[in-house]
Amino acid sequence: MTIAAMQGIVKRYGNELALDYVDLSIHEGEIIGLLGPNGAGKTTLIHTLLGMIPFDKGSIQLFGRTEKVFSHENKQKMGLVTQELTVFEDLTAKENLEFFAGVYGLKGEERKKRVEEALAFVGLSSNAGKTPAKFSGGMKRRLNIACALTHHPKFLIMDEPTVGIDPQSRNHILETVEKLREQGTTILYTTHYMEEVQTIASRVVIVDQGQIITEGTVNELIANIQHEEKINIDVSTPGDVPVERLKGLEGVKNVHVDGSTVQIISTVGSGNLDRVLSLVKETSGVVGIQAEKPDLEDVFLTLTGKQLRDGEEE
Amino acid sequence: MTIFTFALKRIFKDKTNLIFLTLFPVAAIFLPEPEYWPLLPYGYHYFGVLILFVGIRLTGLLVEDRQKGVVKRLAAAPVTHFQYLFQNLLAFSVIVIAQCIFMIAGGVIYDHELHEPLLLLILFIVFSFTAIALSLAWNSLYRNKETSFLVFMCVIIIMALLGGIMMPIEMLPDVLEQLAVIFPTYWLAEGMEWVVMGEDTADFLLINGVLLLYTLLFLIIGSIRRMG
């Protein structure tokens, strides 16, 4: 079932084109990793999808509705984890959750139950009575997430929820996202950290300059750009490496010896690792082996000519 | 009414707000009665200035929400910007009304000569609404709560001086005396004078009408800016 769909969405800020005919479908139970450098249009895309800003052209469908898409009924089913820490510093963690639960229409015992549940979910139960001012960066981020969970959204949009926190807190948040997926929540997760997307996303959408430049699973995206495999083998006697015999093996395109490292470049799917290894082992002695695999960073670099992390041109 | 409830909660959690809302009015009640000017006890004249300070303090919550991105987050929630503003303004209004009642009741108990306490209460409440609306409009110009408050403090002093709250307007040069009518504080001072010496009810209605018109105008200006 399609939870949300954007068709031909155009959004302009003056002369600047922020979204350029964006088409995107999000299906129930998916975690979509929306990846792109800073200023690529990720936040504009999600703000448009949430009805927070108007768009100039195109149409949006949410929960099967094409009319009154941003009705309160639909907003009730959605949650937003903002990039900024949008919590009240003067209220306790519990009061913050009570506020957002109340805004989403929860009352009385139900609200109390959901607030406790959300606090436990993000691991803040023991800090429920403290104000965010006394929290670490990671705890504040978790509270920011919990504020979007009390009303049990079917579709959760997380806008760079791990910006500026330590790796331990980041892992905690990623585990929380996994748990939400297990509960059946559909998630649109925007980030410019490709490791996060590689860990949690069932599908990746790459955005640059307001356009969706590609989408698919991590493996599909990598396969699309991968035309060769590289293996680096560290050997004990580099002088004895049988370069010509290695080149003669099926699938091997080239062999380089650099110091004590032999790099073997083969065509994708050649399946010659066993033969390569046994040959090097018997002549030169294998000390170590590394396979160079492309990742999303390479996908992004190949497609846009930019580094993912900072959006700077190479 | 979640936004309303939590607005009250947030206001009372702030210690500075508590001083503005409780300690200052109590101190104002105990200020002495003057010999010639003003016509009402000093504390009741200065209360007009206090109302302006309270207004900017209370509406500062909205700047804070905008600054923090809470307003943006609420735009994704099933609540309209109007509901957000209305519930916050309602909370501020409840507080200022309570403060005005406290001030008048305190004066009556302390046996101050307030002439027409009920009409003075109405005047203070109407002026409080103007002060909240003015602060809302003022705050909508700023991204930072502290800057807004600091600049507004100067504006309050100017309005109090030129409006006839801190000194008789007759002491001002002619040009400034004519200019004074543009300040809501002028109408408050006029209203206080009417409470002591006024006879024609239409004049009192006119004064309150002008203040309510100011309120409406400032509310419109203050509501235009949404997410920032």
UniProtKB/TrEMBL annotation, chain A:
GO terms for molecular function: ATP binding; ATP hydrolysis activity. Keywords: ATP-binding, Nucleotide-binding. InterPro entries: AAA+_ATPase, ABC_transporter-like_ATP-bd, ABC_transporter-like_CS, P-loop_NTPase. Residues 4-234 form the ABC transporter domain. Pfam families: ABC_tran. Gene3D superfamilies: P-loop containing nucleotide triphosphate hydrolases. The keyword ATP-binding applies. Transmembrane segments: none annotated. PANTHER family: LINEARMYCIN RESISTANCE ATP-BINDING PROTEIN LNRL (PTHR43582). This is ABC-2 type transport system ATP-binding protein. It comes from Natribacillus halophilus.
TrEMBL record, chain B:
Keywords: Membrane, Transmembrane, Transmembrane helix. GO terms for cellular component: ATP-binding cassette (ABC) transporter complex. The keyword Ribonucleoprotein does not apply. It is a multi-pass membrane protein. The keyword Metal-binding does not apply. This is ABC-2 type transport system permease protein. It comes from Natribacillus halophilus. It holds the Pfam family ABC2_membrane_3. The chain crosses the membrane at residues 16-32, 44-63, 84-106, 118-137, 149-169, 204-224. It comes from the Bacteria. Residues 47-223 form the ABC-2 type transporter transmembrane domain.
